[in-house]
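ENTRY TYPE: protein
CONTENTS: sequence, structure tokens:
***
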Amino acid sequence: MTARPMTAGPAIASLLIPGLGQACQGRKLAALVHFALAVLAWGATCGTAGWVVNLCSAFGAAAWRARPPVSGAASARGTPPAA
């Protein structure tokens, strides 16, 4: 098993603004969740727990790798394509 390289660009973006790295990767729902959690954490704890969300968001953006596209709709259902 080979190790996946981590990308620095989205990680730095998410470290500055949680969810920005996920948005750059095209993961809009993940970006919204990370941003909302960061706003809640920063507001509810006056900043102490906000850093945890920032770091988790940055790590999530750095470690994420896109899955290869599934070829054909039949493959997505787990059935072989018709001949």
Notes: Residues 8-65 form one domain. The helical segments are 8-16, 20-24, 28-44, 50-63, 73-76. The mean pLDDT is 79.
